[in-house]
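Renewal narrative, Specific Aim 1. Our central claim is that a sequence can be written position by position from structural information alone. The example that follows is taken directly from our test logs and has not been curated for this report. It begins with the structure tokens describing the chain, in the order in which they were read.
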């Protein structure tokens, strides 16, 4: 019988070897692609025991699930077809009609839209608050509140909330705490160690790191993950085995990439602070950033994501036209540096008033720092701003 229980002491070793099948398949060093929709019947006792790709139980899925659980330091994990699939299946596993969620008001635009438009169709309501003060959480609490939903670093303003206080609030009131850990990745932060119940990812981003697949992941206790798996099986959000193969391959360089992106993002952020064309820089690695104190306490690094405001929207537009190394494209977490205006990408589904309310204005530029030369990136940003 194949086992997927390998684990080691160091994260650097686990990103390469954790969950690798034992014995290896025909001696293969790399997990083969199991491009099969179905498998021979065995002694199944429940529907979820059937070997079928839609049920996310191919060998490729098993390797990824085991490796992600080790990286997140949880009992179990589950890969899905996208980050939104991971998030929505997780929410639907713990919410039903009439239930209420509390979230912060600076969420990724896709999640803001889901809470505004899709959740209410299912009878699920959400109160989004200014989460910088503990009082906001208490004021938003209702008898029907069931879930607290946050991001480890908010998108696109890069705020770091008092995550310890949020976990304490959730535990005090018996709420399920869910955190989107995409921006930090398990290299910089493992939410379960702090007390979060479930950690979700857009694995498209840092976990894969090569901008060539769309995938998601969720990690937590075995009991919690089984609830999510039950929803996922019925929603059909399984990850294709070939995408599983690419995700496993991408994850092997996660530590190396994140260490480089942590360092380069800080270099770029400091250079932007010193530039007169820049009104404000959002990056918790900066000493005077509002989230710096919390980030230093609970993160090992602040990641490769930053954002900054130019003096005018016109300057932001010209900057995007003038940069040579970064690619003007949405998404994030790959080896290449990407730049984008969130008001024209991730938050385009919101009204102008909604964007302005949360600070996603047309002069805001979000940067996903890649693994290029830090010196060349800084020089490129400076020449682009000089002509903006």
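The sequence written for that structure reads:
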């Amino acid at each position: 019988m194949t086992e997927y229980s390998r684990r080691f002491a160091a994260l650097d070793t686990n990103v390469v070897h954790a969950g690798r099948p034992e014995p290896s398949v025909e001696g293969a060093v790399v997990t083969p692609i199991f491009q099969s929709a179905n498998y021979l019947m065995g002694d199944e006792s429940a529907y979820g025991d059937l070997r079928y790709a839609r049920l996310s139980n191919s060998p490729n899925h098993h390797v990824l699930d085991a490796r992600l659980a080790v990286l997140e330091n949880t009992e179990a994990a589950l890969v899905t077809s996208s980050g939104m699939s991971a998030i929505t299946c997780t929410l639907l596993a713990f919410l039903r009609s009439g239930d209420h969620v509390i979230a912060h008001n600076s969420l990724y635009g896709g999640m803001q839209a889901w809470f505004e438009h899709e959740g209410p169709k299912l009878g699920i309501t959400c109160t989004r608050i200014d989460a910088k003060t503990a009082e906001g959480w208490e004021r938003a609490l209702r008898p029907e509140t069931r879930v607290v939903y946050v991001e480890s670093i908010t998108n696109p303003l890069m705020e770091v909330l008092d995550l310890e206080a949020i976990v304490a609030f959730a535990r005090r009131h018996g709420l399920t705490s869910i955190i989107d850990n995409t921006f930090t990745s398990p290299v910089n932060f493992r939410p379960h160690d702090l007390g979060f119940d479930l950690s979700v990812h857009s694995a498209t981003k840092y976990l894969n790191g090569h901008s060539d697949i769309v995938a998601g992941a969720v990690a937590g206790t075995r009991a919690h993950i089984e609830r999510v798996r039950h929803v996922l099986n019925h929603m059909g959000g399984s990850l294709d085995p070939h995408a599983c193969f690419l995700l496993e391959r991408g994850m092997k360089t996660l530590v190396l990439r994140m260490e480089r992106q942590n360092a380069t993002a800080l270099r770029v952020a400091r250079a932007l602070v010193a530039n007169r064309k820049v009104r404000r820089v959002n990056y918790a690695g900066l000493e005077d950033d509002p989230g710096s104190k919390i980030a230093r306490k609970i993160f090992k690094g602040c990641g490769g994501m930053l954002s900054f405001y130019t003096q005018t929207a016109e300057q932001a537009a010209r900057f995007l036209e003038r940069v040579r190394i970064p690619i003007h494209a949405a998404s994030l977490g790959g080896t290449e540096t990407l730049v984008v205006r969130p008001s024209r990408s991730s938050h385009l589904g919101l009204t102008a008033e909604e964007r302005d309310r949360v600070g996603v204005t047309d002069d805001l530029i979000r940067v996903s720092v890649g693994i290029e030369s830090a010196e060349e990136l800084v020089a490129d940003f400076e020449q682009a701003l000089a002509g903006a």
